[in-house]
Description:
The chain is mainly alpha-helical and 246 residues long. It has helices at 14-33, 41-66, 68-73, 88-105, 110-135, 159-176, 187-203, 219-245, and strands spanning 4-7, 10-13, 149-151, 154-156, 213-214, 217-218. It has eight helices and six strands. α5 (110-135) runs antiparallel to α6 and α5 (110-135) packs parallel to α7. The model has no long low-confidence stretch (mean pLDDT 86).
Amino acid sequence: xxxxxxxxxxxxxxxxxxxxxxxxxxxxxxxxxxxxxxxxxxxxxxxxxxxxxxxxxxxxxxxxxxxxxxxxxxxxxxxxxxxxxxxxxxxxxxxxxxxxxxxxxxxxxxxxxxxxxxxxxxxxxxxxxxxxxxxxxxxxxxxxxxxxxxxxxxxxxxxxxxxxxxxxxxxxxxxxxxxxxxxxxxxxxxxxxxxxxxxxxxxxxxxxxxxxxxxxxxxxxxxxxxxxxxxxxxxxxxxxxxxxxx
Length: 246
């Protein structure tokens, strides 16, 4: 694992750099593929840039409000690239709010926007897995399988690599198998949502870092079941509506 890069006398969190690089790749791919969904690449670029910027600021400020002592002792942590100092829920809420405001002002089609962003979400899923691998986080259960990796002095399931591979498969399906001209609007995002939830249900069984349970399931698996159910209902609704119109 490589949690820190040394650049001269400066120590930089590798996970933060990987996330930034992945974000750049995701935005580039989304803008180039926007024409498939008949979305203006300039509009989608503005929406993603300002939403992500607001999301990052929101995630950092939300974390600071929850744990003020961390920043009171070291104020420069506010500028840290360490993703561990971000509150994901706070960041997502702020990013979604800003995206909705921008989309409404520009009269953007909400379903088309979600379809356009779906490959970018999958790319970020790959990037998050790679950042976890570099930082040694989101590690797997102890295992003796031939492909196990040594982490924290124990051979473990490479759960980070499992996550990366699942997102690569989802990305390939969205790019090469789902045709926007033959499928109803919103189906690409629905497929991404459903497959991501299904992958989480399966892959979290190999995780060794999260032991929180609810109704006998890991916390993330519980939410994955709800998201999977919603995506199946939404897919059926979209396909039925499309057939009815045709």
